Amino acid sequence: MRIGLPCAETLQGGSLKAWILTVLLSVFMLQLLRTAGLRAFSMASETYTSGTHSAAFVTCPNDTVAKDLARGIVEKKLAACVNIVPAITSVYEWQGKIEEDNEVLLMIKTRSSKVPALTEYVRSNHPYEVAEVISLPIDQGNPPYLKWIGEVVPE
To answer: What percent of the chain is helix, strand and coil (3-state, nearest 5)?
Structure first.
């Protein structure tokens, strides 16, 4: 039994081309698989405890209020990031009447332990009589992003 590379005499025409193509594809695929494997290992090796971080939502009457609140929240390290989503429509009951208003939504990423301080900051700086501040724990996500939230927002 002979093990190793076939000699050129044993490979004829199409089989030589197929052999060369197989070798070339193997070399290129090795790098692709290595990169994919390293990325998967990197994501799997990051640990995150479900609920450590939260996504909070706040509605604002306009862009000016939204930007002022967002900047203050990030500057005070109450959140790592605040997305400002313009032009939402809210339908709600207020003082016995159905209301419909155009609003701006803040999507806030923070540590769950910061939600009470975040809520107090919004209540103190928001023009609404009853400001909406709700939060949901983050169960899963991109491990490097979740790590970044933890680095930016102190405990």
So the answer is: 45, 25, 30
Q: What pLDDT does 22 receive?
A: 67
- Going from the C-alpha of 9 to that of each of 14, 63, 150, the distances in angstroms are 13, 76, 63
1-26 CB burial, b ≥16 within 10 A, e <16: eeeeeeeeeeeeeeeeeeeeeeeeee
The residues pairing with 107 across neighbouring beta strands, listed in sequence order, are 57, 83
Phi and psi, residue 47, nearest 5°: -105, 140
Residue matched to tokens 């939260």: 54
Phi-psi region of 134 (alpha: psi -120 to 50; beta: other; left: phi over 0): beta
Predicted pLDDT at 19:
59
Average pLDDT rounded to a whole number, residues 42-68? 88
**Amino acid identity of 81?**
C
Is pLDDT at 32 greater than 80 in this prediction? no
Percent of the chain with pLDDT over 70: 72
Q: Tokens 């000699």 appear where?
A: 7
